[in-house]
Design a protein that fits this description.
It is a single chain. The chain has 232 residues and is an alpha/beta fold. The protein is 40% helix and 19% strand. The protein is built from 9 helices and 7 strands.
């Protein structure tokens, strides 16, 4: 199977479905990642002390490190403006994604839930582009949206996250064997330490709540079977 994850920023792949990406990569599947910006507008921790170019360079290196940890086979980093994806013409963003799909030829696509996990406009824009692309594609791929449940958000203090409902979930992927890998990939994003300290601080609680990663299948539309799937 070939999976292609598409996100806005360096670190989205690790904080997001990093366990699932690692599970598939280490099982021998081809896993690719498209990151549409270089994260140059980040504003946490040491990011505040760096110029946009310096931060972009630093975060690019961190992303390469995280990708290696997760076992991802293919990485494409775009150069769209961080925190301004909503200002990019839809046709531009959609075509960039389409080009990567044409090149990688994935069986399935992964991105964030429509709410964007944290409500970040860049996250929401990428999801909107993918939904539009799939709707109009002559060869639509399977599309899965990663989200977090309310009980998971409650384990992460001082962080506003927008949960998906259990009723939306179609796939509950077990990632217990890859939690340490996910945490290591998160820590590779050193410029984001202020964020990941909040994520991994209550480590035992996180290891319980993060044993599964949750997805909503939007294409092809799932049937009426209510049994949650543990694989795509």
């Amino acid at each position: 199977m070939k999976l292609l994850a598409i996100f806005a920023h360096p670190d989205d792949e690790s904080f997001g479905p990093g366990g699932t990406l690692a599970r598939y990569a280490y099982a021998g599947h081809k896993v690719g990642l498209v990151t549409l910006t270089r994260g140059e507008a980040g504003s946490v921790g040491i990011s505040k002390t760096l110029t946009a170019n310096e931060l972009a360079g630093r975060r690019t290196c961190e992303l390469h490190h995280a990708v290696k940890i997760l076992g991802i086979n293919y990485l494409k980093i775009g150069d769209l403006p961080d925190k301004k994806l909503a200002e990019v013409p839809d046709v531009t963003g959609i075509q960039l994604i389409q080009n990567e799909i044409d090149f990688f030829k994935p069986d399935a696509l992964i991105t964030f839930h429509e709410q964007g996990i944290s409500g970040h406009p860049d996250h929401q824009t990428v999801t909107r582009w993918l939904l539009e692309l799939i709707k109009n594609s002559r060869e639509p791929r399977s599309l899965f949206l990663y989200g977090v449940l309310l009980e998971q958000t409650e384990q992460i203090p001082r962080r506003r996250l927008l949960p998906m409902t259990m009723a939306e979930v179609t796939h509950k992927i077990s990632v217990s064997d890859f939690l340490d890998t996910k945490i290591e990939a998160i820590k590779a994003h050193v410029t984001q330490e202020e964020s990941w300290q909040r994520f991994i601080q209550p480590i035992e609680k996180i290891k319980i709540s993060a044993r599964w990663e949750y997805f909503k299948q939007v294409w092809p539309r799932p049937g009426k079977n209510k049994d949650l799937q543990d694989s795509f």
